[in-house]
Amino acid sequence: MRISGKPLGLLVSALALLLAAGLALAPAATAAPASQEMMRPAWHTLPLADARTGQSFTLADFAGKTVYVEPMATWCTNCRQQMSAIRDHVRGQIDPRQVVFVGLSVETNLAPDALAAYVNAQGFDWTFAVMSQEMLQALAGQFGRTVTNPPAVPHFLILPDGSTTDLSTGFQSADALLAKLDEASMMHPMGAQPMTDPSMSSDSMPDKPMSDPSMGNNQMPGGAMPDKPMDQMPRP
Predict the structure, then answer these.
(1) Is there a contact between 103 and 70 (Cβ–Cβ < 8 Å)?
(2) What pTM value is reported for the model?
(3) Please, which residues have CB within 8 angstroms of residue 91's CB and are 6 or more apart in sequence?
């Protein structure tokens, strides 16, 4: 059957339009991560000053890491108990390349030097800053007034993708905190890292037998393993 010139021309034009539409949609797919990053709340970019060094920073500066944030006060004994647990039982078991800790004083009129003196005396060696009124109000708007009450031990996580967990309150054991941080590290761009001694290398780990179903070299579709070695399988 012959096709006349006019219908053929219409068909070619339609194919060209479809191809152009596909190319136009392609950049939108690659731009998705950037749009997700723009969903950060505005308070992530509010300026803070390191109480020890005076260096300016924002919570958004830690993008790609898990950030443990604890609103606290120098007079709060519950805060001191929680941060002591972090100092003694948590900090040594996490990868500082993936997890950072930030303490934010709700005492907006506190001098940074006074905060630095307090945390140095307690041996809390992570980042601390005095919140501005703007930051305090923004956190209250996000989490409610409980976030401004240090004795409730409020704390939350900022995940590597910029999303924020719900507010948690009350003293958390070291095991509970490590479990939260371990779960959050699954979102790290480099993948989860085991919370073990960093001096352990792959060379020092025992080899897994090839029969272990977690090994993928001989794994069949659906996760099943062959009952016999491939060289013993019946030939047709």
Answers:
(1) yes
(2) 0.65
(3) 101, 125, 126
Q: Tell me which residue has tokens 């950030």.
A: 67
Strand partners of residue 196 = none
How is residue 173 written in tokens?
């054991």
Copy the structure tokens of residue 109.
Answer: 């009129």
CA dihedral 106, 107, 113, 117 (to 10 degrees): -70
Q: Please provide residue 75's backbone torsions phi and psi, each rounded to the nearest 5 degrees.
A: -95, 0
Contact at 8 Å (CB) between 96 and 88? no
d(CA 215, CA 207): 11
Among 111, 105, 98, 36, smallest CA distance to 68 is for 98
Q: What are phi and psi of 100, to 5 degrees?
A: -125, 155
pLDDT tens, position by position, 126-178:
999 999 999 999 999 999 999 999 999 999 999 999 999 999 999 999 999 99
Report the alpha-carbon distance of residue 28 to residue 17 in Å, rounded. Answer: 18
Q: How many CA atoms lie within 13 A of 185 on its CB side?
A: 20
Calpha distance 118→12 (Å, rounded): 75
- Across the chain, the runs of DSSP E, i.e. the strands, are 48-49, 56-57, 66-72, 99-105, 127-130, 156-158
Angle of helix 77-85 versus helix 112-122 axis, rounded to 10? 50
CA distance 162 to 181: 15
